[in-house]
Each structure stands twice: as C-alpha cells, then as structure tokens.
Amino acid sequence: MNQSNKTYTLTSVSALQNLQGESIKADGRLRVSDHAGADQGKLNRWALKMTRLPQ
C-alpha cells in the first residue's frame, strides 16, 4: 500500500502563520480525486493532527 504522510509547519507553509492564535474548532471537508485513467483509487483513512507550538 502506498502511504503518504506529510507534515506542514509554519516554516514550510508560511500561510499557516495567518492561523496562529485562531481557534482550531471548525468544520471542514477533504476532497480527494483520482486522476489515473487505468485504475480506481481508494482513500482508506486520513487524519489531521494539530499541535501547539512550544511557548
């Protein structure tokens, strides 16, 4: 199985700095598309882990 784990930080994605200090309580959506023509893809699971920055 091909797994893709990515970590985004304030350093790697500067736009996240705009969210610093905002509430993390929210509704959201994940949109997934399989653009491979020869087969079908399947998303088995996903997760979003939010952590606080050290003070």
Please count the helical segments.
Answer: 0
Percentage of residues assigned to helices: under 10%
Radius of gyration, in Å, reads 15 Å
From the spread of the alpha carbons, the general shape counts as elongated
Distance between the termini: 38 Å
Mean pLDDT: 78
How many beta-strand elements?
Answer: 0
Question: Structural class given helices, strands, pairing?
Answer: little secondary structure
Strand content: under 5%
Report the sheet with the most strands, covering strand number, pairing sense and barrel closure. none
Low-confidence stretches: none
SSE topology:
Elements: no helix or strand
Characterization of this structure:
There is one protein chain. This protein is largely without helices or strands. The termini are far apart.
Question: Nutshell version of this structure?
Answer:
This protein has 55 residues and is mostly loops. It is 0% helix and 0% strand.
